[in-house]
Amino acid sequence: QVQLVESGGDLVQAGGSLRLSCAASGIIFKINAMGWYRQAPGKQRELVATITSGGSTNYADSVKGRFTISRDNAKNTVYLQMNSLKPEDTAVYYCNLVVNWRDYWGQGTQVTVSS
């Protein structure tokens, strides 16, 4: 069994920064893709950023240039550095990892950006 634990969500003013973390634990043979998604109230969950095992990244247009996804394979952890935050970034952020060829989701962490 694999568990994901997210951390880093908080209340921040517009223009501020936050760093989210998602650590996987359990019996792990391989972690393929890692990603972050978010869901704002009344909206569908949307892709924020992904990173492959080789380090290739992909970002939603709305966060390009402001957010950076990275991974530490030794720690089985994925990060999301969020800079220049905007009120429209307010959402619950979920990590998604493909571990041992299965899909896992974190419990979600709340990010609130005040104007």
Structure notes:
The N and C termini lie far apart (41 Å). 0% of the residues lie in helices and 58% in strands. The chain is mainly β and 115 residues long.
Summarize the structure.
With 115 residues, this protein is an all-beta fold.
SSE ordering: EEEEEEEEEEE
**CA(first)-CA(last) distance:** 41 Å
What general outline do the C-alpha atoms trace?
A: globular
What share of the residues does DSSP label as strand, in percent?
over 45%
Q: What's the multimeric state? A: single chain
Low-pLDDT runs: none
Taking the sheet with the most strands, its summary is:
7 strands, mixed
Q: How large is the count of helical segments?
A: 0
Helix content: under 10%
Mean pLDDT: 96
What is the radius of gyration computed over CA atoms, rounded to a whole number of angstroms?
13 Å
Secondary structure class reads: mainly beta
